[in-house]
Amino acid sequence: MDLRAITIGLSTDSLVELDPLSDKLQKLLDDIKVAYAQQEISIRTFRINLTPISDASGRGVNIQNLIGIIDQVSRLCEQLDIRWFNVPFDLTHVNHSHSPALFELAFETLKRFPKTFVNLIVASNNTINYDAIEKASRFIKNVSRLDNSGYHNFRVGVSCNVKPNTPFFPFTFSSDEIGFSIALELPREFTKVIRGCNTNNLMVIRQEIINQLLPQIKTIEAIAQQCSDNSAIMFHGIDVSLAPYPEPNSSVASLIELLGLERQGSNGTLFLTAYLTDILKTFIKKGRIKTAGFGGVMYSLLEDDFMGKSNNSDIYSIDSLISYSAVCGCGLDMVPLPGDIFDEELSAIILDVTALSTVLDKPLGIRVLPIPMKQENEFTMFNMDFLFNTRIKKIKNHSFINASLKNEPFSLLNKEIG
Question: 2-160: what CATH class?
Fold first, then answer.
């Protein structure tokens, strides 16, 4: 079993003395590389995650000072040979007068630093900030115009009720304590076990997956904890999620058909998604795994080659993809949209996922890519190792507009109500 990512969480305060921090992290990374290599476990990426930038005080933000901090992180990534880093923005407290500065900073971050991801947090603690959702929609449209491919929204996520230290980007932010978390690459292992079972009995397959893979996850956890003890850097946990990658046997969507459904995306997909999610939750409970992140099935349209091919036959709608979020991991992820989608419709899509996240009390995210000058059914044209090209999704050209939601944060479930 290989690892998708080792993600190091840093607070912005920890960047004051960069050289000692760099030395400390270099030792941790060297220990991790050696320890996992000894077990023939490969690591696809190393990443850095920051604590959220916010304007909770209402006094505004100093863009130049924060750009300087982000530049320090960029240089740290170069020193440590880290592929990406994530800059989260807590928008749950923003208001009309101060929020533009946060979005200006987020936009400058994406333009200046090609290794960055940006996470726009629009809901937390059961409360939705609709004003932030509207501005996030305009932000996504502006980012889409940075080049003709629409690629740069690969680096932009909108997140809802996500907990700290998730290792998967971009729906994440770090806690204040320096530490690291781990993202797994599970689809190949699930595929191998399912194909080797020679039965369609779901209970037998479920038990065989648990028997074969749980010991491997425990080994990964034990190595991480040992590296943590040696370095005195916190191990935050493992995200036991099924996340795709566009290479052979690494599709999450293909598992649904291996389990007996004629076509992933047809009726029955929701049931089998819940079945796979239950296996992941059993890993966590039975193995007493120290966890961080989603712990779910991740459908990511542009990152899953099997799903991308199915999408070319128009098997999915925006609505069906959102519905899977009720039982799967990360929400509406990596979905290409027409470049001229209305800001208001984009806001309504985000609002639906945010509502689902809030009602179900589960972390979800939205990562959509409007493609400039392209319409539904045309193909994306990306040239990047994490992405598989597919058809652009159909939209409805309708929106939700209600000025009352802009006045203050909106709570769906008031806990004071019996």
Answer: alpha beta
